[in-house]
Design goal:
The protein is an alpha/beta fold. Helix content is about 35%, strand content about 20%.
């Protein structure tokens, strides 16, 4: 027999004005909504029982009418280098992964924006998972809140940086990513600085233009990996619909509107993009707008396929770029022993 009880609403889907109306309709004061909002977004409450400045009767009223569809850290793995990988269970039972990356001067949260991914990049473990759905704004927020808590509890240090480099393509879940960033950076939320947030994309030209038009204040990184169309299309099918010429025009527009550098993420593989021709193509692409390059260590996702290029090839790239005024860093990956490094997030746990 079906229950006649109305389904409870997810309270975090309500705007503050809607929450105020709920309380006034119950004969209560509208400021009660402000108290609840603070618990939800500033204090990251996981349950109504945590809202200790509300009366028991008010908490019971909230329980009768609403849910908090909070994530749960299902499993937590610790790497030998201190990196922590969270397998995060969503309210519908699906799993995504997020990563806490500790360094000497910073602690970074790497968060996911989709369950799986639809972009089929050949070198990425997440691409082997079917994209099942976008994450909601509060699910993205919750990943950051969980890592913030881990940072403070385990390392006794504050979370300093956030990168959208986990599972999924952030710009294919744009509205929820933006809404999450609004909550993460709001003084009424987690109060993180916008300049400490980086959104990484495979390079969806029309969405880069939209971000520029929207006046976003966070940093932009592009997962590039090749600056020749044939090579890039062979490893990143998105390049067929968003070729380098279109990406270049979008990035020019981005810089014209924001005056902010872009970071190119670039892995060098044996037999794929390890020639001087590829390095020269990257240099040419870097000169389109002010930019910097992270040469990223490759993290194998199986026994075959892609292999990291030699140190000599990496130095060839680095020397060419730096001699031409392009700030370049070689980024060693963290958390490889727990499959937490770039490109390895695949819900193996």
């Amino acid at each position: 027999m079906l229950s006649s009880e109305p389904a409870k609403r997810d309270i975090r889907k309500l705007k503050l004005d809607e929450l105020k109306k709920f309380f006034t309709d119950q004969g209560d004061k509208p400021f009660r909504a402000v108290q609840v909002d603070e618990w939800l977004w500033k204090k990251s409450a996981k349950s109504f029982d945590q809202m200790t400045n509300l009366s028991v009767a008010t908490r019971d009223l909230l329980k009768q009418n609403f849910n908090i569809n909070h994530i749960q850290v299902d499993t937590m793995q610790r790497s030998t280098d201190g990196t922590i990988k969270n397998a995060v269970k969503l309210h519908d039972g699906l799993i995504v992964e997020s990563v806490l990356i500790p360094a000497e001067k910073r602690i970074t949260a790497c968060v996911s924006s989709q369950v799986g991914c639809s972009l089929a990049c050949a070198f990425c473990a997440t691409a082997r998972l079917k994209r099942q759905r976008n994450l909601s704004a509060d699910e993205i927020y919750d990943q950051v809140a969980a890592i913030k808590e881990q940072s403070e509890t385990i390392f006794n240090r504050p979370l300093t940086n956030i990168v959208f480099m986990g599972m999924g393509e952030p710009l294919l879940n744009y509205s929820n990513v933006i809404a999450a960033i609004d909550k993460i950076t709001s003084p009424k939320g987690l109060g993180m600085a916008m300049k400490r947030i980086t959104v990484s994309t495979v390079g969806i030209a029309k969405m880069i233009i939209k971000m520029a038009d929207d006046g976003v204040k966070f940093n932009l990184a592009v997962s590039l990996h090749a600056a020749l169309d044939d090579t890039r299309s062979s490893i990143m099918p998105i390049n067929d619909s968003n070729p380098l010429a279109d990406l270049a025009e979008a990035l020019k527009y981005w810089y014209q509107k924001t005056k902010r550098k872009v970071t190119y993420e670039y892995v060098v593989w044996q037999g794929v993009n390890d020639t001087p021709e590829h390095a020269q193509a990257l240099l040419k692409f870097c000169k389109i707008i002010p930019s910097k390059v992270n040469l990223i260590e490759y993290n194998p996702i199986d026994e075959g396929g892609f292999k990291q290029a030699s140190d000599a090839v990496l130095m060839m790239y680095m020397d060419l770029l730096e001699k031409n005024g392009i700030t370049t860093r070689i980024r060693k990956s963290r958390g490889k022993d727990i499959d937490a490094a770039c490109g390895q997030l695949a819900n193996k746990s």
